[in-house]
Amino acid sequence: MESDIAAADRRYILTLGCPDETGIVARIAGFLADAGAWITEAAYHSDADSNWFFTRQAVRADSVAGSIDELRARFATMAADQFHPNTEWRLTDSGTPKRVVVLVSRESHCLIDLLGRAERGEFPGEIAAVIGNHVSLGELTERFGVPFHLVPFDDPQVSRSAAFDRVAAIVDAHEPDAVVLARFMQILPPHLCEQWSRRAINIHHSFLPSFVGARPYHQAFARGVKLIGATCHYVTAELDAGPIIEQDVIRVDHSDHVADMVRQGRDIETMVLARGVRWHLEDRVLVHGGKTVVFD
Amino acid sequence: MESDIAAADRRYILTLGCPDETGIVARIAGFLADAGAWITEAAYHSDADSNWFFTRQAVRADSVAGSIDELRARFATMAADQFHPNTEWRLTDSGTPKRVVVLVSRESHCLIDLLGRAERGEFPGEIAAVIGNHVSLGELTERFGVPFHLVPFDDPQVSRSAAFDRVAAIVDAHEPDAVVLARFMQILPPHLCEQWSRRAINIHHSFLPSFVGARPYHQAFARGVKLIGATCHYVTAELDAGPIIEQDVIRVDHSDHVADMVRQGRDIETMVLARGVRWHLEDRVLVHGGKTVVFD
Amino acid sequence: MESDIAAADRRYILTLGCPDETGIVARIAGFLADAGAWITEAAYHSDADSNWFFTRQAVRADSVAGSIDELRARFATMAADQFHPNTEWRLTDSGTPKRVVVLVSRESHCLIDLLGRAERGEFPGEIAAVIGNHVSLGELTERFGVPFHLVPFDDPQVSRSAAFDRVAAIVDAHEPDAVVLARFMQILPPHLCEQWSRRAINIHHSFLPSFVGARPYHQAFARGVKLIGATCHYVTAELDAGPIIEQDVIRVDHSDHVADMVRQGRDIETMVLARGVRWHLEDRVLVHGGKTVVFD
Amino acid sequence: MESDIAAADRRYILTLGCPDETGIVARIAGFLADAGAWITEAAYHSDADSNWFFTRQAVRADSVAGSIDELRARFATMAADQFHPNTEWRLTDSGTPKRVVVLVSRESHCLIDLLGRAERGEFPGEIAAVIGNHVSLGELTERFGVPFHLVPFDDPQVSRSAAFDRVAAIVDAHEPDAVVLARFMQILPPHLCEQWSRRAINIHHSFLPSFVGARPYHQAFARGVKLIGATCHYVTAELDAGPIIEQDVIRVDHSDHVADMVRQGRDIETMVLARGVRWHLEDRVLVHGGKTVVFD
C-alpha cells in the first residue's frame, strides 16, 4: 500500500546502532553521498557509558535512484563488510503507512485523541483495529470507522490466558508496527511482551519509577507530591520497568483531590502517549540496554 | 529586633488548622473585622480526606489597634471558647525578621543562591550562620559577612554523635526559624529531626519518591528517565519521606550523561530550595498528616 | 433541567466583585454561616492596584435550607444594604447544566477535544450546538450526537453581516453560557462582542500579546522564538486584546519548521482552550478592568 | 593559556554553516576520519526555508595527531576546494579558556549567579572583568576576585558617548569571547552592536517579542498575562530584536503584583542568561538570517 504523501515529503529513514568506533559517521555519510541521497535530517549519539553509537538519517526518497530494496541490499553488503556484527539497522520508507492496533478498557481520553490524530493525518499510519476488554468504547471507535473487537477478561467461561490468545490473534492478524496499550488495565503475559518486544507501547499514569502498579494517583495524593506525571514506555515482562520513551508532569497542589488528579492526569497521559506513538511510528526511537534514544 | 520594612508593608499573619466544621470562616472573619483588620491576603482549604480546615490570613499591621501580643491574647481567648481543642494556630509579625541557619558540605550552588537572596532582601529574614562539615565553603560564606562554623564529620577523634552535638549547639544558640540543609549530605539523627520538627528543611536532588537515598542522578541515568527533579521537604526521621513543600523538574534526554544531569540538576535544586525556604519564612506552609498545604 | 450529579457534589457558587473595604469577608462569611452553608471552597483576592475585591465561594447545596432562589433573594437584600452599589455578584447552582455553543471552521483538534470532554462529563454542561463556516466538521460533530449548523461565509449571495445574523440567531436560540470560538477564523462584529460579552471565548494560536492577528506560527518562525504558545481569552471588539483566561507554551527549536509548530501548537491550543472553558463553566473566572481573576 | 581540563575531556569543536547541497556531511565526516578524529558529539541541521546547512562537531583533542593549527590549515585547504565561498566555519579548542566581560547596573541576581558558576567551573572560561554604571555591585564583584570598573552614565561632565568609549576601551582590552549585558539598562550604540556582533549577549526581562523596551513587568501586569518570561539574545542595533538564543517562562496569576513579577522574573532571567552564556561559550550557537541554531 502506498500512501498519498507528496513525493517531496517522502523519506527513506535509516536507523542504526552499533559499538562505537572511529569512522562510522564517515562510512554512513559516504554511502549516502554515493547513493546521491539528499539528507534532510541527521542525528547522532555516542553513549560513552555503554560505548554504543546511534544514528538516524532521513533522506529524500526522490533523491535516490533505484528502489528502497536495492538501497537496502547495498547497505547490507556494505554493513556486512564494514560494521561490527552486533550492528542493528533498519531502512524504512515513510511512504509505507504504519499500522497500529490499540488496546483499551473503559477510559476514552487516550483513544479519542489517537483516533482524532490518525483521522487528521498526524501519524504516518492508521489505526487498523481497537480491542477492548469492555464494551464501553466500541461505539466510539466505530464512529471513527475503525473496527472494534470485544475480548472480555471477566467471563468465567474464558480463562485469562485464553482471552490473551484471542487478543494476540487479532493483533497479529494486522502485523502491526505498534501495539498501543491506551489505559488497557491488563498486564500482558511475558510471552506477548517478548513477541511484541519494542512494538508494545504502554502509557502509565505516573512519573515512573514513582508509583509503579495500581492506583498511582491515589499513591501520589497520599504522598503529597506537588507534580503528577505520566510515562510512555515499551512493555517488558517486568511491570512498568520497560524503556521509557517519554514523560511529562503537571503541577498540582493541596486543593487537588484524587479526582482532580485523575482529571488533570488524563491530559498528561494523552499528550505523552501521543508523542511516544508518533516518535515510534516515525522511527525516532532506538532502544539499547533498557533505555531509549529519541531523535525528536 | 525590628526590621526596616515600610509600615504599609508590615503584616500580621494568622495561620490556623483545625477539624473542619461549619462557621469557622465566619468566626475568624468576624474576629478580624472586630479588630479593624484590613485583610490583604486570605486563603482557605478544606481537606475532605482528613476533614481538616486550613487558613492563612495576612492583615496590615497598621490597621490593627494595639500590639500583636494583645491581638494574640484576644484570639487565644476566642479560640479557646469557639474552636476545637486540636486547633493549631500562630500569629506572627512580618516586621520581626526570621533567623536561618544553613548546613552545607562542599557544593556551593544552593548556599551562594541563599546568601544572594538574603543579601538583596528577598527573604523576610537573615542567614545567622552557616555550618559546614568541610572547610570548602567557609571563605565563600564569610565573603557575605556571615559567620561560618566548621564541624568535621571525618575526624577519627570525634564521633558522629559528638559532631551532631556540636552542630546542634551552634544551631540552637541562634533559635532559628529555619534550619536549611543545603546539600548537607549527612543524615540528621532522629532526636534532631524531632527537635527541629517543621523547621528543618532539606533539598533532595530527585523528584521524590523516585530515587530516595544516595546518588539519585546516577539512579536517574540508569533508569533512563526523561525528566529529572528536586524536592524540598521537611526533615523527618524516615529518610527523604518528610512532608513535601515544593518540587520541580527539568527535561533531559539521551545526550545527558550523569555529569550533565548533575549540572542541570543544580539549577532545579537551587530554585526549589529557594521557593521552599521563602514560603516557610513567610508562614505559607501548613503541615498536617505528613503533607503540606502551601498558600503561595 | 436538573443534572444527575450526586447530591453531595452539588454546589451553590457565589462569585462577587466590589470595591475593597474592611469587613467584606466577615459579612459574606456571616451570611453563609447564618444560612447554615458548608463551605467547600473559598477564594479571595484583593487587587491593590484597582482597589477591587474578588471572591468565589462554593457551598454544599444540601447544607442550605430552602431553594437557591430564596438564598439569592436573601443575599440581594443583604448586599443592597451592606455592599457598595457597584458590586457585581452571581449565585449559581452546579446542578443546573451549562449550555455551550461552539463555532468552528476547518480545524478539528479543539472541537474533537471539547466533544470528548463533554461526552465523558468533564464539563458541568453540554455542547448544545456547533456552527461551522465550512462543511468539513459537520460529520464529526454529528458522530457525537450534537447538531451541526452550516453557515458559509464565502457565499457571494450572502453578505458577511447576514451570515453573522444567522450565526447569532442560532447561538441566541440556545441562550448559551459560553460561545466558544474553537479556531473559528472569523472576526466577530463589535455588536456580537458586546452582546456576548464575558461569554464569548476565543483560542488564539500565539502567546499574546505576541503575534496578534493572522498566521501567528509563521510570525513565530520568522522571529526565531524558542517557545510557542496559545491564549484563551474573552472576545472584545479590539482584536486579540480581550481579558486573558489562560495561556501556555511549548518549547520549539531550530529543527521545527512552520508545519511542526502548527502541529505542536495544536496540542497547546487544545489544552489551553479546554482549561479556559472549564473554568468559565465552573464560574471560576471573574473579569475586572480588562483582566481576569481565575480561582482555579 | 592552557586550561587544566583533563586530556580526555579536551575537545576540538568545528562549527560550520553553508548553502545546503548533497555531500557536505560526507566531506566533513571523511575529513575527520582521515584525521583520525574521534567524534564525541555531532549535530546537523538543514534549514529548508533558507537552504542553509549547519553543523557542530566535537572531537577528542587527543585523538588528532598534530596541533589544532595544523588541523585548521588542512580544513581551510579542503574547504576552499570543496565548499561554497559563503561558507562560515570555526575550529576552536575547549582547552583554551574563553574570556567574558560582564556589564551591569544595580541588579545583582544575574551577576552573582554568573560569578558563582564561573567560580565553580561551570563555564569553559572566566569572567575577566565587570563594568558597572553604578557603584552598587563593585564590592560584590571584588569579593569574587574579579576587577570592577565603574563607568558612570549620569555624570554631567561626561557625555553618554564618552562613557561608552570608556566601556569599549575596557571591554576591548580583554578581547573577550562574550560581552554579557546582565541587566545593564543602557542601550548599546550601533557602532558597538556592530563591533561586538555575535559576541554581545543581552538578557531582556520579557518573553520577546512581547513587551519590548522599558518596564516589561509593568506591561505584563497591565495586560494580565498568565506567564512571564525572559529572553537571552544577541545584541543588534534594533532594540530587543537580535537573534534569540534562549527563552523561558514562569506562571503567574492574579495574586502576583508587579513586585511579585519582578521577584519571580529574576529567577527566569538568571537561568535563561546562564544557559545562553554557556551555550555561546561552548560554541553551540550558530547565527544565520536573524535567527539562531542552538546545538545543546
TrEMBL record, chains A, B, C, D:
InterPro entries: ACT-like_dom_sf, ACT_dom, Formyl-FH4-Hydrolase_C, Formyl_transf_N, Formyl_transf_N_sf, PurU, PurU_ACT. Keywords: Hydrolase, One-carbon metabolism, Purine biosynthesis. It catalyses: (6R)-10-formyltetrahydrofolate + H2O = (6S)-5,6,7,8-tetrahydrofolate + formate + H(+). Gene3D superfamilies: 3.30.70.260, Formyl transferase, N-terminal domain. Pfam families: Formyl_trans_N. Residues 13-89 form the ACT domain. PANTHER family: FORMYLTETRAHYDROFOLATE DEFORMYLASE (PTHR42706), FORMYLTETRAHYDROFOLATE DEFORMYLASE 2, MITOCHONDRIAL (PTHR42706:SF1). This is Formyltetrahydrofolate deformylase. The lineage of its organism: Bacteria, Bacillati, Actinomycetota, Actinomycetes, Mycobacteriales.
